[in-house]
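Page 47, continued from p. 46.
Same chain as before, 128 aa.
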Amino acid sequence: MKTNMEDIDKLIKDTLTQEEAKFYDSLDEQGVFAMIAGLYKGKNLWFTVVMHIINIIAFGLMIYCLIQTFDVENTNDLILWIAGFFICFMTMSMLKVYAWMQIHRNALTREIKRLELQVSSLSGKISD
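Result:
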């Protein structure tokens, strides 16, 4: 049975009520910018804002450490400033990885809701 995704979506929408079909359309694939905007919705908005503030502070400290490495004459101090640079870099990297994990979690939640809607649609169709 060769059918493409549009035919399957049309078949699903035909079995849904008008309100369910509108909800199903809202669960469609999102672009990158819509996914990033999705981080700023929901209960964890405050945490996302704090995470970005910490990321900006870590970036500033990283630049400061980089500038200080050029002014140091002692090798031990140079090692300390470079270590500070790498700690700030790792902090920024981990915060960005966490943000991408949240984006993937939101996408997975959206797909699970689509599956739940499809299952409820099919169960309603079977019971008729």
